[in-house]
Specification:
Elements: E1 3-7, H1 14-23, E2 27-30, H2 31-38, H3 44-53, H4 66-75, H5 77-101, E3 107-110, E4 125-130, H6 133-144, H7 148-157, H8 161-167, E5 170-173, H9 181-200
Parallel strand pairs: 1-3, 1-4, 2-3, 4-5
Length: 201
């Protein structure tokens, strides 16, 4: 299976780009969705998180209190490392298993922390969705209500824009009109079909 790792900073537009690829027939696996599934009330992984951090990180619905956990891990690097040691191996395993089950010409793996977790080595191609940091902040504020300080902490915890662009095989500039995304995705879709065919030959 030809694997494309799609990454970008928070608020860059990764999900929108992935939806465009999916509409064209690519397989899509979103690791954020996997992370949500692993932290629902019935997940055995949540029990491990509770054992590590206490009942305070569990919400009234029995699932992970994501806002509370976010505040904790961005204030305490050791807590963040502990959470990642629990979640990241399971997310990676589930991601690859889902990719293997897909029947499609190639798979887009949406991994926000692709570079930070070293998973770019799993990919045949790295695609970065890019926009200025100021635009990331504005978009996240508009959709989530997080404060600018909280968003800045999240951005600071991720690979820099420059580091992502330096590692990219392909870049989608998402700083302009949303209508410009589709033609760029279509062009890359054709490229990935050709590359996937070449790998299969």
């Amino acid at each position: 299976m030809f694997l494309v790792g799609l990454t970008g900073g928070i608020g860059s537009g990764k999900s929108t780009v992935a939806e465009h690829f999916g509409a064209l027939g690519a397989g899509v696996v979103d690791t954020d969705r996997i992370a949500h599934e692993l932290t629902v009330a019935t997940s055995p992984v949540l029990a491990e998180i509770r054992a590590a951090f206490g009942a305070a990180v569990i919400g009234a619905d029995g699932a992970l209190d994501r806002a509370g956990m976010r505040a904790l891990v961005f204030a305490d690097a050791s807590a963040r490392a502990r959470l990642e040691s629990i979640l990241h191996p399971r997310i990676r395993e589930a991601m690859l298993e889902r990719a293997r089950r897909l029947v499609c010409p190639y798979v887009i793996l949406v991994v926000p922390l692709l570079l930070e977790t070293g998973q770019e080595e799993l990919m045949d191609r790295v695609l970065v969705v890019d926009c200025p940091v100021s635009m990331q902040v504005a978009r996240v504020q508009g959709r989530s209500g997080l404060s600018e300080a909280e968003i800045d902490r999240i951005i600071a915890s991720q690979a820099s824009r420059e580091a992502r662009l330096a590692r990219a095989d392909d870049v989608i500039d998402n700083s302009g009109n949303p209508g410009a995304l589709r033609p760029r995705v279509e062009a890359l879709h054709r490229l990935y079909l050709d590359l996937a065919d070449g790998c299969a030959a």
